[in-house]
Amino acid sequence: MTVNACCHRAYNIKGTEIQIKMFDDRLVFESPGKLPGQVKPNNIRHTHFSRNPKIAAFLKAYHFVKEFGEGFDRICREQEANGAKVPSFRTDEFILKIIVPKVAEKVLMETRIAILQLMKDDPYISKAEIAKLLELHPSAVSRNIEAMRGKYLRRVGPDKGGFWEIIV
Q1: In this predicted structure, what is the pLDDT of residue 37?
Q2: Is 153 helix (H, G, I), strand (E, B) or coil?
Q3: Which domains does the chain have, with CATH numbers?
Q4: Beta bridge mates, 28
Q5: Helices assigned H by DSSP within 18-167
């Protein structure tokens, strides 16, 4: 979200900066400018327009982004994969506000328990297989595994040929 805000900020608007506000139930990103070009609320996930193409090219060249135009759709997919609502947005005067809801703790814990159960049933299961079985994005599986690594599970051996061990 932060990279997206930096890439698409309206730099011609002076006197304000990108702000990130953290609340108990959400994050709010405030960026100077309105939705750029032909991007509208009903097509934002699949319409790509760069307000700052040179900044976008720099971010891609240095691997801050994988593909041009993937930002908001990717953020929505990640939220959905983690059981959270997709971000919403609105424009107040000349500031675009994007509200990113927090992932519910209950959903997060249920996801992690399901991952551990799959690993218990098949210690050789891959992250890709877990993602497919739980209908999660692979990056969501990786993030959950990293959060549990050392506390509830560990990897024994290499990524290919190794296995998962549940720590009691």
Answers
A1: 80
A2: strand
A3: 2-101 (3.30.565.60), 105-166 (1.10.10.10)
A4: 21, 99
A5: 53-61, 71-81, 105-121, 127-134, 138-148
